[in-house]
Amino acid sequence: MTELLTEGVPPLTTPLDPARYDRFRTGFHAVTGFGQRLLAARLVAVDALPAPGGTVGVEQLRDRFGVLPQYDRLCHALLDILDRAGYLRRAGDRFEVTDRIPEVTGLAADGVAAAEADRLREAYPEVAGYLPLLTTCQARLVEVLDGRVPANEVLFPGGSADLVSAVYRDNVQLDFFNQLCAERVQSHVRQFLQRYPRGYAEVLEVGAGTGGTTGPVLAALGEWADRLRYLYTDVGPVFLRLARRQFGAGRPYLDFARYNVEGSPDDQGFEPHSVDVVLASNVLHATERMASTLVNCHRLLKPGGILVVNEMTRRLDYNTLTFGLAEGWWRYADDEARIPYSPLLDGPGWRAALEQAGFTGVELHGVPVVDPVEQVQSLVVATATGRH
Ligand SMILES: C[S@@+](CC[C@H](N)C(=O)[O-])C[C@H]1O[C@@H](n2cnc3c(N)ncnc32)[C@H](O)[C@@H]1O
Q1: Is 232 helix (H, G, I), strand (E, B) or coil?
Q2: What pLDDT sits at residue 9?
Q3: Which residues surround ligand 1 with Cβ inside 6 Å?
Q4: Hey, what domains does the chain have and what are their CATH numbers?
Q5: pLDDT at residue 65, as a whole number
Q6: What value does the mean pLDDT take over residues 303-330?
């Protein structure tokens, strides 16, 4: 049974192996420490940090490396990581280098970092998929900051998604949340079709991308194939072409369309208030203004329809050190709604933003055994009210 963080809604029952999840959490903690050490080592290796006792600030990084303006927030976030990790100590608006910095000397050398990554891979197989992306991103950090190499070339070398896909493969946490999405969508569709025996359930997935969440959701909806319409959307047309090949065969209820959730559905050919479930997995954080994104989602929904959001709800240094290299990670324009140094919202932040956009009955689901405020990922569900 999942931890139910909201009163009055039946808990979901997607299982999670506690021992496996515990090993995952321990391993992820070790990977995070490695990432922090790699960052410190990389900055020492390029002479960005003075000797212990000296001070550094974002301006020095900016001037020393000609950091692109779009990475200003990333620089602040990186110094914040080193502060929390104990390699720097905040001193006003600058940071003093601590005497722990010699601990990381030499780690930036390729062979040394690779050996440490190998050791972690063996010790913590549950998180092995996180390591190649981390070591690659940290090795190329300065070239990305100063614009010599586009971040996309580091995250998707030669257009390949292998580095990023490795993070998602056999990931106990991500698998659990995808399954949780499937269970929650299924329960709403079941309820709707029982109430309207001649009706069709309409599901619209936003930012479906490579379909990591779509697969489990479609499997959970299989028994209603003849009473279902599933619209697979993304802002990127390439994803739609690939998805048609991957999911299209034998599913006449599945359709594909381009949709940018930052824009009104009316302007993009979608009928307002026509959908029973809007599903958005790991996409909404990437939008510029959460308030208008949520209003757009609300407009798609029938009154009583639900928005199902699968999102990270805590800032993780791992994400800053990897996905943080992508300009898109920092494009949000509503800092007050986000967790500091990240594009993410926490549980209370989601609740407030959803209620502001006209939703009600906000549910927050997380993993069992983890404290509500420590949920790294959450399933957030909210019900649309009237037509506006
Ligand atoms: C991190 S991927 C998540 C993909 C998929 N939902 C999953 O969880 O496996 C984010 C996806 O959101 C899409 N996306 C980003 N901004 C968007 C927007 N404004 N409207 C619609 N889709 C967007 C991207 O093209 C990408 O496919």
Answers
A1: strand
A2: 58
A3: 206-210, 212-213, 234-236, 239, 260-262, 281-283, 286-287
A4: 18-168 (no CATH), 171-314+334-384 (3.40.50.150)
A5: 86
A6: 97
